[in-house]
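Researcher: Here's the sequence for the chain we discussed earlier.
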Amino acid sequence: MERNGDQAAATLVATYRRLVRQRVRESAGAEIKVEGDAVFVAFPSARLAIACGAAILKDAAAQTEAQPEIPVHVGIGVHAGEPVPQEGDFIGSAVNVAARIGSAAATGQLLISDVVRGLVRTGGAFPLRDRGSVSLKGLSEPVHL
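Model: Thanks. This is the structure I predict for it:
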C-alpha cells in the first residue's frame, strides 16, 4: 500500500472500516474502539462473533476481487472472557488475548480460542480445525486455537 500513496491508504482504511461496521451492526455487535487497523468489538454471544467474523472475511475477499487495487487483507481473532468495563472501553486479560489472537490471524483466517470453541462446539454450525497451542506475543502461556 505504501507504493500507492497516502490517498490509497486512506481509501483502504475507509473501505475496511465501512465493511466491518456494517457487519457488526447487522450482527448485534458493539464497536468498542479502533486502534490502527484493529477494530475491537463485543458481542452478546460467541456464535454471533464468529458469524460476523466470517461475513467480514467474505466481504473483504469480495471487495478485493472487485477492486484488486484496493486489497482488503483481514485476519480475525475471537476470544471470550470477562473484561472490565472502563470509561466506554474494556480492559483486562480477555481483551489482551483477543488482540493477540487477531494479530496471529493471517489474511482470510478466523482464529478462535479454545474458550470460544467450547462455547460453540455443540452447535455444529461452524467447521472447526484445531491449530494446537500457539505462543502469542506478550502472553506468558500458549493459547490453544
